[in-house]
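Much of what follows relies on a compact textual record of a protein's fold. The record below shows the convention in full:
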Amino acid sequence: IKQHLEPFAFMANVTQSDGAHLDVVLITLGNLFHIFLNSSIDSIVRGGVIKSLEKQWKKADQDYFILALVLNPFIQCKCFHPNSPFRIIGGLWPVFKKSFRRFFDKDPDFACHTSLSEYISDIGRWSYKSMCLDDYQKSTPCENVSFNFYTREHDTGKDNGRNGLVRMALHILNVIPNSAAMVRTFGSLALMNVKSCSQM
């Protein structure tokens, strides 16, 4: 029973945290999928879990989850299979362009395309070395490092051009697909109101 339930307990704990951004959620679900590929787990349980995960993934807004991994500068395309279309600009650009249009109601321009291409190719301004990611990671708190990196280091405020990549990353990496933080906030407000009323 522990072998079956422990991964779900871990997943629930991670995905309901304040820092459970889209990239964290997808990595956690991917890890759960990998765990239940283990042939030592009962075949009925294993098949049921994998089938459920695949069903939920089909229903999800996959583009945003994929971009969350790619636009995390500490992950980028390394998590994808070598033959995945999401490791090259030709496969990523349609996904990026579609999502960009949904956020900004316009198409990303050629300069934005160039930035994304350089970013996933690890060259120019967007290379790992040029962005000094090792130094930045050491000097910054773990929580939402990638979002803070884009905000503090690269955002010029423009929605397109070379900064289009940054603005897109800020939108994607700022999404928290759970209500945990909001529930805590409202819970705190309720406690404050109760305390205030009791003192009147």
